[in-house]
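F.,

This is the one I mentioned.
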């Protein structure tokens, strides 16, 4: 198996390749290093089949879309990922075939709701779920320390002790660890109960990542131009939620609010479908098209997307434009479908 870490910095990007077929996958690429990755692949004679994000990153712009656009690689993320233009959504237990290699998907929410680890041969790429001597923070962007503890202890620690661990970040100069070593000495989890872990994680009080404002919502929406000025964290925190059952009751009772879907055109018609009578305005076009909604300024609006993330951004944008009664559908069309509520395609 061909294997390289390509950034030589705190944010880790890994390339794994099948020596026989010369096909490769890129794991957690940075946008600014896209040219470097393509050069390395060309130098060693590999072609990228997949550009994979282990989760939605908050501290750097993802390079998956640029790599895909330039090389024809397919973008892969876990099913709960919000971003559009993901070619393959995967779930726990799926395998991603790269030549003769088989990358097994291990769902590991907690750092984010769309976290996954990739297990191939003797190693596991742990994203920001399990770090070397640490764990990824779980205090924003849908983080959940209890889910994270379960993923680490029940899924990752169930792998053989000698499995090599390659995380998405390390700022202490480490390059790799093993499951056995983390199990016995990781100060966040070794010997800790679930309750102790949750308490420890709630007391970290970390500052938000430096580049969160340029990175997180841009990665969640795959918008990489200046068509949108993303709302800040304080604005996002004021957005009200409606759960799928509530919205469905309103529709059934004949008092439906105006439903605004902010996904891309192709998502509106894909497997998740859309809510009947909803109006589609992709997030990217919302600031320019908001004038078309001028007669809705005082009416009730519920914004809908894939996982309830872009809709939060859109609701905050509308509120800032003077729309008075905006909320968003929590969990988006993913939860709407999980609740088996009706959709149109
Ligand atoms: Fe992360």
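My design for it:
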């Amino acid at each position: 198996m061909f294997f390289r870490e390509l950034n030589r910095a705190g944010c880790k990007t890994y390339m794994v390749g099948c020596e026989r077929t010369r096909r490769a996958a890129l794991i957690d690429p940075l946008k600014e290093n896209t040219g470097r990755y393509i050069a390395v692949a060309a130098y060693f004679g590999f072609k990228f089949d997949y550009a994979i994000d282990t989760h939605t990153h908050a501290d750097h712009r993802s390079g998956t879309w640029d790599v895909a656009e330039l090389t024809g690689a397919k973008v892969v993320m876990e099913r709960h990922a919000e971003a559009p233009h993901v070619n393959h959504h995967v779930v726990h237990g799926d395998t991603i075939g790269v030549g003769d290699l088989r990358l097994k998907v291990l769902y590991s929410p907690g750092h984010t709701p769309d976290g996954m680890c990739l297990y191939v041969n003797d190693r596991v790429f742990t994203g920001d779920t399990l770090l070397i001597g640490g764990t990824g923070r779980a205090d924003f962007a849908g983080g959940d320390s209890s889910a994270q503890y379960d993923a680490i202890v029940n899924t990752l620690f169930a792998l053989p002790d000698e499995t090599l661990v390659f995380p998405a970040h390390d700022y202490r100069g480490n390059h790799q660890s093993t499951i056995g070593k983390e199990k016995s000495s990781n100060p966040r989890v070794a010997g800790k109960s679930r309750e102790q872990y949750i308490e420890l994680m709630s007391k970290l009080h970390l500052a938000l990542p430096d580049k969160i404002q340029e990175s997180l919502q841009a990665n969640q929406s795959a918008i990489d131009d200046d068509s949108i000025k993303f709302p800040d964290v304080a604005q996002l925190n004021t957005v009200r939620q409606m759960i799928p059952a509530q919205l469905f009751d309103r529709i059934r009772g004949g008092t439906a609010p105006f439903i605004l879907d902010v996904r891309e055109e192709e998502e509106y018609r894909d497997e998740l479908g859309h809510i009947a009578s909803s109006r589609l305005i992709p997030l990217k076009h919302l600031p320019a098209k908001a004038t078309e909604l001028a007669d809705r300024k005082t009416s009730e609006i519920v914004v809908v997307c894939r996982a309830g993330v872009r809709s939060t951004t859109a609701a905050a944008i509308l509120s800032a434009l003077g729309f008075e009664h905006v909320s968003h559908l929590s969990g988006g069309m993913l939860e709407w479908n999980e609740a088996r509520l009706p959709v149109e395609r």
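The two ends are 42 Å apart (CA to CA).

Talk soon.
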